[in-house]
Amino acid sequence: MKARKWGIGVLLGFVLAGWALAQGGKLEIFSWWTTGGEAAGLFKLFELYKQKHPGVEIINAAVAGGAGSNAKAVLKTRMLGGDPPDSFQVHMGHELIDTWVVTGFMEPLDELYRKNGWEEVFPKGVLELLKWNGHYWSVPANIHRANVLWYNKGIFEKYGLKPPKTFDEFFAIAERLKKEGIVPLALGDNGIWASTHLFETVLIGTLGPEGYKGLWTGETDWRGPGVKKALETFARMLDYVNPDHAARSWDQANDLIIQGKAAMYIHGDWVNADYLAKKFSGYGWAPAPGNYGVYDALSDTFGLPKKAPHRKEAIWWLELVGSKEGQEAFNPLKGSICARTDCDPKLFNPYLQWAMQQWKTDAIVPSLAHGAAAKESWLAAINDVMSLFVTNKNVAQAQSLLAQACVDAGVCTR
Amino acid sequence: MRRYRRVAFLLLAPSLLLIALFVYGFILWTGWLSLTNQNDLIVPQVRFVGLENYQRLFHHPRFLIDLKNTLTFSLIFIPGSLVLGLAGALLLNTGVRGEGFFRTVFLMPMALSFIVTGVAWRWLMNPTSGLNLLFESLGLGFLKSGWYTDPAVGIKAVALAAVWQLSGYTMALYLAGLRAIPQTFYEAAEVDGASPWQAFRYITLPLLTPVTLSAVIVLGHISLKIFDLVIAIAGISGGPAFSSDVPALFMFVTTFQANRFAQGAAISIVLLILVSFLVIPYLYWSLRREVAE
Amino acid sequence: MRRRPLFWLFVYLALAALAVFYLVPIYVLLVNALKDYREVSVEAMWRLPEHLSLASFAKAWFGDPKTGMTGLGQNFMNSVYLVVPAVLLSVLLGSINGYVLAQWRFRGSETLFFLLLFGMFIPYQSILIPLVKVLMALHLYGTIPGLVLTHVVYGIPITTLIFRNYYAQIPRELVDAAQIDGAGVLGVYRYVILPLSAPGTVVAVIWQFTQIWNDFLFGVVITNKPDVQPITVALNNLAGSFIVEWNVQMAGALLAALPTLLVYVFMGRYFIRGLLAGSVKG
Fold first, then answer.
1. CATH topology of A27-144+298-366 equal to that of A145-297+368-408?
2. Average of per-residue pLDDT across B159-187
């Protein structure tokens, strides 16, 4: 009789413990990192998290497709429906601020920043982009650089070329290569964002970092000569891209460099991760033409939704993401650099080490194509303009539509 | 009969209720949304703005191109599937050996989802290495095209992939239809001295009309909602200069990327009105036809 | 009508040409699925693989724990749990509706039929948000039953159409005879209609099975947690947002399409017989 009571007690104990574990201890992270280095990096973070907080069940709610467009659609349906994840991947800057912060979905993270001393460790340029209304709203996991010129070393050596510093140098090289039957510039804009990406580097190169930043605050005139020149330069660049650019996604454009069919590729530094994954080492890099001294930055960040079902666990996640340990584990795998300035360079490959160096000294500007510079509806409008411009190269029409987009976004007045 | 009417109605009730909510209720919600200013995730003050969203829509270059594309797509997809399906059915109905094999091959594309079809055709329609390469090597260079990368072609290329996917369905419909025609009709015609072409024109085609009508409804609704296939082939931006863009894709991007919910709702309502103008008379006509038979 | 050999030659050539047209894309999918990652590229799409490799199929199915790719295997059963009830229910409702609308025409039944049918034409993207809200209110959001309900509701129009056209073929005399024997609406259904339903049911089942198995939009929006998502969502997730392993994608696409492919291979003839038996007449 005693044994039976004892047995029941033990059983009840297990049941209660199981029930207790099932109650607390869950963390749902939403992202679009489903394969490759991105997923590997995410998983490393999950591993670290489990070491620090055993007993928390991590749910990986990742959705692939369209550089995040599927995931964003699902996220919006969930948030509007009142079922937020505990934390979600979102680009720093206006994508986060205008979509989720201004609309009141997120909690401010000032306390967390104070507690973890992040204001000392993230560069000022990044802190500016994470702030709104005097508060911090997300924690940056990484920094990617958008304005990089990648080139096939073999081709450059063969023709005795050096990476172009200015647009004039670029066009000189491009002319030469075109005559030799090599595609001067690779482009893969089956997703039109890739063209917007290329255009933003031209904007930076034409207007300079301050002029470029002014576009997003209304200080730089969209109808002015600077933007006009940028559009003309961009149109000229498009004369030197592979004719099947509309059929290729960004990674398929990268294949042209790998196969030696194209010489140059102006694109973000996830291209580096692609080379490594495809075991190609015959490439070099430099800042995009006209972009020397400027770091066109984008960042994947995580925030805290107001109605996060497991708030405590979510905060632990944010602390991990912003920590030196977390960033040093995540970024080498993801192929980006830390947002923190105190990470150990020895953990990173040669390109990333170069990027880390530049990060310390370059002027930081927010990326347009990746959510930092402008809110989503503005970016969508600009993407639409690019769709038309890449085909018809009509500078006047594009400039007028771009100016209108700024007005529609509520930033410009005319 | 009246008693029966009650039972009949009760049997229909669950479906009617579900459709009332999930279709008509949602349509009303969408209509309401399109008349407001909710073009952000949360709008501090929700107001009625009348037809403002619609006005902006009709001034948007993308939307006008989309409407044109839907028309172009339907004009290629629907007749294309019907003709190819009929041709296939006529061939299969000759009683060849191996009919089963060919029939299976023709039906297979239907098993794939539009996304999978889109991925395959996107590769095939790559201007430098897909079908163009094949045509080149077979000496059929004149067939080369920019496909969806060429703004002049755009949606027509997508329509080709759609015909590939669904012509098996029309073929199956027509095959069944052909087999339903009594052999005696043809025998009588032969006795009367009619040529095979005349038999086809005056016996076969008219008797296949109901099949055609039925197929057009199904193909038509796919035409108006085409979405996955466009994204898989031309990308979420709808191809160069929106040459492959369709309203459903524009609606998706407007709502879920640009967060312009009211604007997206306006697109949906315009699509629905378009559908109504086409579908209502069509259904009315084909139902009347049936009663006449 | 005896035919000359030239005729048969023409027929075979034409059939072969059509067969090539239908098989080429499948060839591309298959050939590239059998290559390994470095070999697969748009440039080389026509070439046969250097080394035949089933690795991409394995990877597509089992995933790759190192990179967190979850593979299709885990979601296969979800699709089964989704498709079986959804097909059964939507076909059942379609059958009842089609029967009533075909055999028991009363004033307004044509209008009701039209109202039911119109549901086929709404673009699903436009109703996602209210759909999610309704499902949440019913506590079905994020679950397979919620997805089943969605597919049943949006499948009603097409199954009703299929069955109505099919049942319209059944001679009125059979129904009248049963009525004289004392059968009511349900009785006629049970004793006259149901036994004759096989061909129409085959068409409806095959059509619904294909649509629901291949659906992506509802799957990705309604089932938001990975462990309940259907196979189409898992297939989509095989592609990273940035880096796509095309060989795995294509292998995955073929694997995900296998059930529906098999259905058409083995049931194709019944599909056509079903169409023949009556749903043909518009």
1. yes
2. 90
Boundaries of every domain in chain A? 27-144+298-366, 145-297+368-408
Euclidean distance between CA atoms A31 and A320, whole angstroms = 16
| Of the partner residues A70, A80, A251, the one whose CB lies closest to the CB of residue C243 | A251
- Cβ neighbourhood burial of A343 (10 Å; 0-12, 13-18, 19+): buried
Are A243 and B128 in contact (CB < 8 Å)? yes
What is the domain partition of chain C in residue ranges? 5-62, 73-281
- Integer Cα distance of A407 and B16 in angstroms: 46
Number of domains in chain B: 1
Mean pLDDT of A180-194: 93
Closest CA to B262 of C216, A377, A403: A377
A255 interface with C at CB cutoff 8 Å: yes
Minimal-distance CA residue of chain C relative to A40: C67
Are the C-beta atoms of A375 and A355 separated by less than 8 Å? no
CA angle B135-B140-B141, nearest 5°?
Answer: 75
Partner residue opposite A39 with nearest CB, options C41, C69, C220? C69
| Contact flag B258-A377 (C-beta cutoff 8 Å) | yes
pLDDT number for residue B203 = 84
pLDDT in tens, A306-318: 999 999 999 999 9
pLDDT in tens, A346-404: 999 999 999 999 998 899 999 999 999 999 999 999 999 999 999 999 999 999 999 99
Is A32 in CB contact (< 8 Å) with chain C?
yes
Q: Each residue of C162-187: pLDDT tens digit? A: 898 888 878 888 888 888 888 778 88
What ipTM goes with this model?
Answer: 0.86
% of chain C beyond a pLDDT of 70: 93
Asked if C241 lies within 8 A of A71 by C-beta distance, the reply is yes
How far does C261 lie from chain B, in Å, by closest CA?
Answer: 5
CATH top-level class for A145-297+368-408? alpha beta
- CATH number, position B98: 1.10.3720.10
Nearest to C257 among B112, B214, B255 (CB): B112
Chain C interface includes A377 (CB < 8 A): no
Give residue A381's identity as a one-letter amino acid code. Answer: A
Helices B99-111 + C5-33 axis angle, to 10: 40
Instruction: Report which DSSP code applies to A60.
Output: E
Contact C221 A35 (CB under 8 A): no
How many angstroms separate the CA atoms of A112 and B131, rounded? 57
- Of chain C, the percentage scoring pLDDT greater than 90 comes to 28
C220 to A67: CB separation less than 8 angstroms, yes or no: no
Residue B218: is its pLDDT beyond 70? yes
Contacting residues of B for A105, CB less than 8 Å apart: 41-42
**Contact list, B103 vs chain C (CB under 8 Å):** 268-269, 272
User: In terms of residue numbers, what domain contains B253?
Assistant: 60-292
The C-alpha angle with vertex C214 and arms to C210 and C218, in degrees rounded to 5, equals 120
A34 vs C contacts (CB less than 8 Å)? 68-69, 237-241
A197: closest CA of chain B, how far (Å): 14
Task: Decide if domain C73-281 falls under CATH 1.10.455.10.
Answer: no
Distance from CA of B27 to the nearest CA of A (A): 18
pLDDT exceeds cutoff 90 at A109? yes
Assigned domain for B281 exists: yes
Residue A17 has pLDDT above 80, yes or no: no
DSSP class of A102: T
Question: Which pLDDT score, from 0 to 100, does residue C234 have?
Answer: 84
A27-144+298-366 maps to CATH 3.40.190.10:
yes
Both structure tokens of C149: 């309900």
How much of chain B, in percent, has pLDDT values that exceed 90?
Answer: 38
Does C263 have pLDDT greater than 70? yes
Mutation for testing the A interface, residue in B119, B257, B263, B267 having most A CBs under 10 Å? B257
Spatial separation of the C-alpha atoms in residues A300 and A142, rounded to whole Å: 6
Task: Summarize the confidence of residues A1-22 as an average pLDDT.
Answer: 55
Binned at pLDDT 50, 70 and 90, residue C280 comes out as very low
